[in-house]
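Possible regression after last week's pipeline update?

I re-ran a chain I had predicted before the update to compare outputs. Posting the input and the new output here so someone can diff against the archived version. Not blocking, just want to make sure nothing changed silently.
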Amino acid sequence: MMNVKFLSVNIMILLMIALLCCKKTGQEAHQTDGSPIFIPQASLLDGGATNHYPVPFNEDGAALNYTVDEDSTKLEVPLSVSRSGQDNAQAYSVTVLNNLVVLQQQVNEMESAVALPADLYSFPKKVEVPEGGSSADFNLTINYRRLLEKYPHLYDKKLLVALSLYNPDRYMVDDKNGTIVLVINAASFMPVPPEPQPDNNLIKGGEFNAGDEAYWSIMKQNTSNSDPVVSFTGGKLTVSTPAQTICNYVVYQAVEVEQGKKYKLSGDVKTNGYTNGWFEFYLHPNAPAENSDYNPENGAGRLMEFDGWTQGCLETISGKIEDLYCSGTGVSEGAVFTSKYSGKVYFVMKIGTWDGKIDLELDNLKILKLD
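New output (post-update):
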């Protein structure tokens, strides 16, 4: 999809602004002429009767009122704030906030409607219009990749966001068109998910939810001056230490594999100031042993490696482990690998630092059989 705003939507916005420029409320705020501040897109569909703003604007897509960036990570809906009067064009600012009351009302009244999950979108909390101007643009930004990956079940829903203008430092907010309800047609952006298949994930408890710690073993490997805090919190595995820590730990479980079969390791990783350390994944028949660094056959079975001595590899990262890992000082098989073993092996995560700091989150860990 191209980053294009079609002319039809812009023309409609300009026409609506022109119509509303004639509107006066007779009220005053902050010693001005009382010209109201509004969101032009709120009245494009039906003159403001519902404040609905469909995305896409119409079913045939002729009016593309959104953009998607080239790597499909971000979907943006352009919006704006405007003032109807052209006289006394002084600078002003206005706060933009979620309107949860309107949102819930619309979800209740509209068929197949749900609130767009809060972790998927953002918008500026304040919009400023410069001296001499009457309007300014802002965007509702949606994490498109997360929508596809985390919420595929919403593919047939109308995703709603309700925004309202509040607390202008000059002028006043229009009672009606100061609120907009974005009605995002998920079917225009999301594929129909495949039929549910049996979960072939070899790893148990890879979502790190409450109770998942029962599937994992945690073991100290060798020299340590401070034990890390390892916890299953908020649906994530978190590991943390203070600065200037020396430690080496493994978190592991037994899984079953077939020799010659192809598998893929994937998951979400986030670090913040993880220094002078290592974070490695292994799949090998040897079980970890206490007071002994886990390094079977000098690196055999190592799938992925992160290290603090390769720039950009570990210290502060966020994303998919299969996209971010680096080969480091060893030889890694990678995210997609062919098993050299059959039967019971150990999936091992080795986590440590030498006179550094660990700050690690891990989630959605999977080893999937590909054939």
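Follow-up from reviewer: compared with the archived run. The radius of gyration is 27 Å. Marking as no regression found.
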